[in-house]
Amino acid sequence: MRGHELETALQTLRTEHAVAKAASVEKESQFNLLNDALVDATMALTKQEAFSATIQEQLEEAVEVAKFERREKKLYLNVIQELRGDFRVFCRVRPDPKECVLLFPSEEGKREQSQIACPLAHREALVRRFQFDRVFTPEATQEDVFVDVEPMVMHTLDGGNVAIIAYGQTGSGKTHTMLGTDENPGVNRRAVKALLETCNATEGKTYALSVSLVEIYIDRVSDLLSDVPVEKQKSRAIVTHPVTKATTVSNLTERPVASVEDVVSALADGERVRKVADTSMNSSSSRSHLIVVVKVTSTDDMSGRTRTGKLTLVDLAGSERCYKSGVNGTHLTEANAINKSLASLGQVFQSIRSKAKHVPYRNSKLTHLLQDSLGGRGLACLFVTLSPSKDNVQETLGTLAFGMTVRSTSKGPAAEMKREDVEEAGNQQRRSGSSTGGGAAAAAAAAEAGGGCSGGAAIAAADL
Ligand SMILES: Nc1ncnc2c1ncn2[C@@H]1O[C@H](COP(=O)(O)OP(=O)(O)OP(=O)(O)O)[C@@H](O)[C@H]1O
Ligand SMILES: [Mg+2]
Predict the structure, then answer these.
(1) From the CA of 167, which ligand is nearest?
(2) Angle of CA points 318, 154, 58, to nearest 5°
């Protein structure tokens, strides 16, 4: 090979080498990029795995907490079951922007309030104290109220019969407590919501819920969800099942519900046909008893065994006296019928409490329908609702007396004390800054002024 040919070959080789080197540098840089991406992906994967592990841990923790809460609830229910036959009585005072003549004593250092004091109608210088399972002041929210009844509501999931009843004079907050408003629902909607939530979260059982609406107007029983208009319905009979002793309304419509919306729609349908009459005290006064019956049937997925529990939610008609609500004619007949059925309710509670051989359930349609919740293996809770105004003191004392007749654990007579002592003690508390509210503070000291806590025996309204 000649010299210039060698030169050309060498040149070609040099060029090829340079191209190969450039390609190699590019490959290396691509390799480095890929390597970086791989490192990033590995780190992301590690992070993802750690995140998944944390989520898994949190999930397991949540499951444990849920199990624990369910166990706790069960324990609580067991305690309640042991108290069967012991009626819970809660007192709720509605707010009034003008005044509150009621006082709320509380044990020193004890947050939960269970006492209320009311001035005597004709001796205003004196107040009388009453003790309930719980007293809700005007500031109490719908949620506060529901917390105390929720364990009882849950008892229906175990096949129990539970009744929650609101009693009080017109305008004192019975419907507010039981039904409430769309924005601020009461016990009814909260109860069904809680039941549905628990049913959906429970494994191994299938639940079916239904709602019925019953109206008792002048001792006439109507099915508010029936296709037949109320005015065309004959008064329905109250029937007792011969074996289970369950009490119900004959041919009662049971509307299946799967959501709170279903319940709201059923309540709205019922409300449309409900009789509402005006009185001089409250322009939307409900003159009939409204009873919401929630039936819960559970089926065990393994054994196929079924159980039925019943929650009866009762919004009673107002308990005010006839002269004050300015009633006459039809309204007087209504008022008399209301008073009669409320008196029957009081007699039933009293008979059960005194362990009488005969309990007069059948004296009224209302008590007959409630028989399987008030007696036997049932659980019942009564809300006595109160107006805090001076004008209503007489009715308030009557309502408090009714509540005391229902309360099964009587420890002694209701205590009377001088109002001025109560108020002075309250002022002292307010001055020392330890008060959260006038009434509550006054009453905290009043508990001392009264010389110990009054358990409260049944007091006839006439005594007040
Ligand atoms: N705790 C409360 N908080 C706020 N508002 C209340 C409360 N209780 C009652 N009210 C209001 O007072 C008014 C009368 O209450 P409600 O209709 O519940 O009385 P009621 O006892 O059902 O009367 P009736 O016997 O006439 O049916 C309503 O406007 C209601 O919203
Ligand atoms: Mg009402």
Answers:
(1) 1
(2) 135
Tell me which residues have their CB closer than 6 angstroms to ligand 1.
94-95, 168, 170-176, 282, 285-286, 317-318, 385
Q: Tens digit of pLDDT for each residue in 324-341?
A: 555 566 677 777 888 888
- Ligand 1 pocket test, pick from 176, 276, 291 with the greatest ligand atom count within 8 Å of Cβ, gives 176
Per-residue pLDDT tens for 346-372?
899 888 888 888 999 999 999 999 999
- How many Å lie between the centroid of ligand 2 and the Cα of residue 318? 7
Structure tokens at 78: 């067991």
Question: Residue 37: CA atoms inside 13 Å, Cβ hemisphere, count?
Answer: 6
- Total-model pTM: 0.74
Distance CA 452, CA 459 (A): 19
CA distance 254 to 258: 13
